[in-house]
Amino acid sequence: MTLNDILLIGDPRLYQIAEPVAKEELSDITPKALQLADVVQQFRKTYGAGRAIAAPQLGIMKRLIVMNIDKPIAIFNPVLYDYSEETFEMWDDCMSFPNLLVKVSRHKKCKLRFRDWDWNEQIWDLEDDLSELLQHEYDHLNGILATMRAIDDQSFKWRM
């Protein structure tokens, strides 16, 4: 998989809800998760941004997020919950529309429950940029793009 395989805004698959990953699928989906991590690295080299990707962005309709900041971290079947009332506004970007920024509001804090590479349950307390990042990727699993969360109709600008 390469940057050319990333689904772009308007592709109907981006608006579908992804299916859970079954434990029995782990051996088949692990190589795909590593490919997702590679695509994050490719995107970062090309655009100077990119920390994570949701599997549906590459046409893999499974509830999988791969974060690749220092090393690849697979997040299988994530569930976000316990959102803070406190929110913040920010300019969001996306690999599915790489030169467009969208002003959105995200929760400052939330919790994430998921399965890791070894199918162990993990619970993370997320805050600030990590909270924002995982909310963005989690939306992809539910067929929601940042453009659908724009604060208003003037919340769009081109990356300079």
Question: What report would you give on this structure?
Answer:
With 160 residues, this protein is α+β, with helices and mostly antiparallel strands. It has one domain (3-158): Peptide deformylase (Peptide Deformylase, Alpha-Beta Complex). It is built from 2 helices and 8 strands, in the order αβββββββαβ. The chain has helices spanning 26-47, 128-141, and strands at residues 52-54, 64-68, 72-81, 87-94, 97-107, 109-115, 121-127, 156-158. Strand 2 (64-68) and strand 3 form a beta hairpin. The radius of gyration is 15 Å and the shape is globular.
Instruction: List segments where confidence is low: pLDDT < 50 over at least 5 consecutive residues.
Output: none
The average pLDDT value, as a whole number, equals: 96
Tell me the major beta sheet. Answer: 5 strands, antiparallel
In total, the number of domains comes to 1
Helix run count: 2
Order of helices and strands: HEEEEEEEHE
Spatially, the strands of the biggest sheet line up as 1-2-3-6-7
* CATH architectural category: Alpha-Beta Complex
Question: In CATH's first tier, which class applies?
Answer: Alpha Beta
How much of the sequence lies in strands comes to: 25-35%
Alpha-beta content class: alpha+beta
State the share of residues found in helices, binned by percent: 10-25%
So, the CATH homologous superfamily?
Answer: Peptide deformylase
**What is the C-alpha radius of gyration, as a whole number of Å?**
15 Å
How many strands appear in the DSSP assignment?
Answer: 8
